[in-house]
Amino acid sequence: MNPIPEKVVNYNVYDDTEKLVGIASEVTLPSLENLSETVSGAGILGEYESPTPGHFGSMTIEIPFRTILDKSFQLMKNRGRSIVLRAAQQSYDVSSGQASTRPLKITVRGIPKGLELGKLAVGGMTESKNTMEVLYLKVEENGKVLLELDKLNFIFKVQGEDLLADIRRQI
Hints:
Layout lengths: L3 E12 L2 E2 L14 E7 L6 E10 L3 E6 L4 H6 L6 E12 L4 E19 L11 E14 L2 E7 L4 E4 L2 E2 L2 H6 L1
């Protein structure tokens, strides 16, 4: 029986190789939504959306900080840095009755899109938040690349399969 995936035990966020201290509890990861065109016409009952392979709409990542920090302003500079999230994910193996963990690594490169300074409150967090436009995204679990998307270099791989290889050859 396959283990039951349960949760993220903990994670850290790195700016290149430096750990970002002061991150709040959650990082909002990018959503991938294919660009598509509506297809309709003779012989088609109605219409449907036809996704364009490897082409995605705007993707963002939000990095929240508990308080206003120098790091938030460093992330506003367009320096081509990577943001790396490293997590330990827990699963439960029903047959052995034991929990185990496996590593998750998400690498993001992009350009600064915004900075929310948050709010000031006595005894409270500012809940500042940096937003980056994602140009590159790589998701690895347990050392295996599950997804690699590089918008500027025409790369889109899912579970190791290069889904744009034929298109690159044709153009």
